[in-house]
Amino acid sequence: xxxxxxxxxxxxxxxxxxxxxxxxxxxxxxxxxxxxxxxxxxxxxxxxxxxxxxxxxxxxxxxxxxxxxxxxxxxxxxxxxxxxxxxxxxxxxxxxxxxxxxxxxxxxxxxxxxxxxxxxxxxxxxxxxxxxxxxxxxxxxxxxxxxxxxxxxxxxxxxxxxxxxxxxxxxxxxxxxxxxxxxxxxxxxxxxxxxxxxxxxxxxxxxxxxxxxxxxxxxxxxxxxxxxxxxxxxxxxxxxxxxxxxxxxxxxxxxxxxxxxxxxxxxxxxxxxxxxxxxxxxxxxxxxxxxxxxxxxxxxxxxxxxxxxxxxxxxxxxxxxxxxxxxxxxxxxxxxxxxxxxxxxxxxxxxxxxxxxxxxxxxxxxxxxxxxxxxxxxxxxxxxxxxxxxxxxxxxxxxxxxxxxxxxxxxxxxxxxxxxxxxxxxxxxxxxxxxxxxxxxxxxxxxxxxxxxxxxxxxxxxxxxxxxxxxxxxxxxxxxxxxxxxxxxxxxxxxxxxxxxxxxxxxxxxxxxxxxxxxxxxxxxxxxx
Amino acid sequence: xxxxxxxxxxxxxxxxxxxxxxxxxxxxxxxxxxxxxxxxxxxxxxxxxxxxxxxxxxxxxxxxxxxxxxxxxxxxxxxxxxxxxxxxxxxxxxxxxxxxxxxxxxxxxxxxxxxxxxxxxxxxxxxxxxxxxxxxxxxxxxxxxxxxxxxxxxxxxxxxxxxxxxxxxxxxxxxxxxxxxxxxxxxxxxxxxxxxxxxxxxxxxxxxxxxxxxxxxxxxxxxxxxxxxxxxxxxxxxxxxxxxxxxxxxxxxxxxxxxxxxxxxxxxxxxxxxxxxxxxxxxxxxxxxxxxxxxxxxxxxxxxxxxxxxxxxxxxxxxxxxxxxxxxxxxxxxxxxxxxxxxxxxxxxxxxxxxxxxxxxxxxxxxxxxxxxxxxxxxxxxxxxxxxxxxxxxxxxxxxxxxxxxxxxxxxxxxxxxxxxxxxxxxxxxxxxxxxxxxxxxxxxxxxxxxxxxxxxxxxxxxxxxxxxxxxxxxxxxxxxxxxxxxxxxxxxxxxxxx
Lengths: 529, 499
Fold this sequence. Notes:
The structure holds two protein chains of two kinds. Chain A is mainly α. Chain A is built from 24 helices and two strands. A two-stranded antiparallel sheet of chain A has the order 1-2. Chain A starts with a helix and ends with a helix. In chain B, 76% of the residues lie in helices and 1% in strands. Chain B has 21 helices and two strands. Chain B has a two-stranded antiparallel ribbon.
């Protein structure tokens, strides 16, 4: 029940908000309280999830379309664990951060955010391919509205492009899923869309040709996820969507939605098509490296802060992909770590850019300069987040990138030589932006504010928004073990059995049983109230 | 012949008989009432009650069939009572009920001829049901003609004077041509097989298809005749004009009802197995390309439209393409429960989505030559949030976005085609459905993301009947979409008798 509760509670909350009054402030307070409850609820996972075994835990399975073997099948393992927490962690922060950013149609905005939360959590927890597809697609709708209604001037183009681009990729995944369902019918004797059954399939693979079943399925899934990540050359929707999206939209898009792509690689592509992955990994590694360098170079020449951060996302997600397709423990662990890092630091960057944009209504770097003297706290926070983004030791970014590069070095040396240039380039574009925005001669906008004697620095609310993120940046940089121990066994299990991956449902499910005991039910209720 | 007649046989036909009797109520009352329009009770509510009775009778038949295993072929084999017939009847009753609910308040409905209007609609429904029940080409032809003649008149009777007359003439001339082709094809088939009954054709179809050229010619002609009625490319040209010229409830009635029963007839026709031989491989690939072209043309032509009805008209061509994919699966395999149940499920969900989509359109239709364009929807979400929400549900469902009904209907049809190995066809299908997202989302964009334009908005009436219709269909789209399993299982169980 716990997983369904975590997934669908936001829908209930969204309905409550839809049917309550129109007092905007009260609505926002309600939404933040709701998402905090949701976060608290997701913290129960720390108690019920057992990281010592690499099994699928807290499983719920019900038939959905029995004739086609589709079921409502939810489960949690070390791969999805942190992504769920990341989602519930970022949502309240985003809502608090957008307290003043969204001025009109607040109710609709909050409903969209809550529905988005449901679809994202559902994507990470679904263990049935069709259920996954449903959540994966449903997440497009609220995001489509977020960008389309509250976005910038060119929002209609951006939101349509985002929707159609992503959908284009995922329909091929749908076909691949249907194909595998019939494959399950012929190999296992029954139709099934469960991932656990998909892992058992023997999919014919011929290395020499592109047109072998496993290769085609591999690329059908990869296309869907590569567009979502986004990997070069499928990244063009991202800068449009990010620049036009309102701040909360950007934060969620970069923070969580891009991870659906990399999560998909880890959950579907690598374990289901091991031989094709082995054989064709170079394609994705090459795209990852091109993405790292290309994203960084393009970021360097941006004149718009938000666009710069958007392109830096392309570069950072390239690292995640690199780590995944190194196909060893270090690489995959690093990739998971980097997913969280990217969620936190890019999310923080978008929030910070949004904060200053709300005051000055410009994101042009050339309009700024000398902000450090005039908005000291903002500047300090920005620099900390920048450090995290360019992977300075002691911040979270360092751990992730280091693990990824180390893992890739052990597996595929030739790619690391190019990938490391990204580290330098990242430092270059981020620090260059920091220099132009915060130091040097006082810019036009800053001067204006100084003349009017208005404050540009952040207020207490915004500080409260940033504080958890800053804490996490250092926590994850200093104590990576506390994070990694929750995903370690699952990753090791995946890497050790990569050619014959199987995931079993937690048998000795004490964690499961205890859920239904009276005490714990009370516990959950208390948490909600 | 009379000896084969039992009360049971009559009971199995009761939905049709009931509907016909109730269709006479309004006109008879009018005649007895010195040619004055009867009250709503007589002309609207009683026929609606009649539809409900027919529905109950249909459910009864389904129950009897399950419990007693009633005879399948009655009236010397010309009537077939099976799952396909029953489901098509349910679709027809569903669409007739809501079209009738909507028609009263449509501004195109002639108020002084309302009883005749209702009678014609119910008789068109009876004609459709004849097609659904029929196991005989001649009966299929009669049913289609009965429904079509009623529809020609219904379209021509509209209060609106210009477009509706044009539509009626177009539909009539082209429809008659298609009927002639259909009849010609039936003649060929009768000439080569010596029978007009599907069940008997099934026995010889496979051998004849590989030996007799004339038989195949007949099959092609029948396909063309029926393909016109369901607007498959290249027989689709009438669709946008006719849809535009008729009032919205009537369009929904025509689009979903005729399509449902003609596809049911095509299903029976394809299930005879004339495609499953080597000789017919050219025909198979032609039909594949017709499906591809219907999907692509329908969806691409709709991209450039601003007129909502024309958008839906082109999209209905595309939907015919998807359905044709399901048909092809039925035609190609010897035991294609997946194909038949996918097609039937698609027809069912298409009926629900169509009545909803055209239902909301009738809110905007007001006067002569009124063109309901997407501009009319500007900013609707902020004046009428619930209406905008249900319109969005219809559009997203038609586009096939999960977890709505439209997604599952596409999922079942694509699954069937994948199973049959029609990979290229399925790829064309998904690509065209991605294209369709653009124009299905266009109304959503206008409703939610544009400022409203006072000049275009005008006043629009609130209508309980429209609210009822769109509410019910939106609820069905969401509920049946989220739990499509049971319905799909039912449909799948009931099409087994086809093979």
